Amino acid sequence: MLTALLFCGAFTAVAKDRISKQTAECLECHSSTTTGIVKQWEKSAHWSSGVGCYECHKAEKTDADAMDHYGFTVAIIVSPRDCGQCHAKETAEQEASHHAKAGDILNTKDGILGQTVGGEPAVAVACRQCHGSIVKVNADGTLDTGTWPNTGIGRVNPDGSKGTCSACHTRHRFSKEQARQPETCGKCHLGPDHPQKEVYEESKHGILYRAFKDDMNMDKSKWVSGEDYFDAATCATCHMSATRNQGVTHDVGTRLSWDLRAPVSKRTANSPEKLKAMKDVCSSCHAGPFVDGFYKQLDEFVEFYNNKFAIPAREIRALLIKEGVLTKANFDDKIDWIYWELWHHEGRRARHGAAMSGPDYAWWHGIYEVAKHFYTELLPEAKEACEKAGKPEVYKQIIAKYIDGRKEHEWYTKGFDKKRIQEMKKYYQERYQQKVD
């Protein structure tokens, strides 16, 4: 046993006294068979606190995933419920968060796309790796490879708990420093329908983070914005970490006053309190008028998206279904795909771009794409579908209700405002001293 402990290298006499006999026996094998894991653990706060292999992986024989492992009863998965034996507050907040519900998406239209249109192998290596699986246990206590491994944030564990702490605090270091970095969130929060990582990278926050990362004290136990670091905000800063006025939270929705994921955005429950909490974070670095001005711009942008595009698009599709032009099934009509991407991809990009100070995502990857597809795909496809169904009057009803008489759509029905075009030409001629066609 002493040889094994010396192999680990980092053990001092004090540390030897801290670890349990069971963990010491684990290390006799694992210090050579899974050396990397042991080395990671040696650099963790768990190691310095005497929390080892056995303390985390021990199980009762009655546990669904209990298995015999060289005379020990253990479980492969260390669930939030296990972590909660020491981290009760963090576990309770995580279980109440939207993260813990991430697996529910597999029962939505996203699930239909992945499981039916795509296929099970794609779901296993893609969807479930972020959203989580329902982990199935084999008769011998090992885990079914169709549902494991993954560290999906909404994973349903064999003990019934949801989520995994190691999604953010990667095992076996479980590092605070690593969890505070935006790259951690970027495993899942990127891509065409939720590009928070890309938006962050083009924002001032992301630019400053890359420039001054080494000055942000991210390895410190205490990490309060405006006290321990000043140069930039990370994902954790805004959504989880402490300020002078509020503590750390593991409920990532505590400070979100808008739902920017839905087809049509709505205020979240307890929105005023959540907005106040987020403004408090912003105020660690920004003055009050700056913060208020930012949220005024955001609110106006979201309402604009809702009223000009999202609500009309949703109601147009619903009317086509009601009138029998489209079927009630999802993704069997071309307009289903157009509408899906309009809100699920382009609309989300626009709203998250506005909320996270990413101008290119708010416009070129966002509202520009929304507008383009609303006018050049959604409406023309609705017209064609009505004509094919022998119901052209339905399209006329759509135009009369959602387009005609609305100032925001006048350019589409009456053409561009000639006076406005001339003003724009004059502006560019004066600015660039050249003729504009």
Automatic annotation (TrEMBL):
Gene3D superfamilies: Hydroxylamine Oxidoreductase, Chain A, domain 1, Hydroxylamine Oxidoreductase, Chain A, domain 2. This is Cytochrome C552. Keywords: Heme, Iron, Metal-binding, Signal. PROSITE patterns: CYTC. Pfam families: Multi-haem_cyto. Residues 221-342 form the Cytochrome c domain. GO terms for molecular function: electron transfer activity; heme binding; metal ion binding. It comes from the Bacteria. SUPFAM superfamilies: Multiheme cytochromes. InterPro entries: Cyt_c-like_dom (IPR009056), Multihaem_cyt_sf (IPR036280), Multiheme_Cytochr_ET (IPR051829). The lineage of its organism: Bacteria, Pseudomonadati, Thermodesulfobacteriota, Desulfuromonadia, Desulfuromonadales.
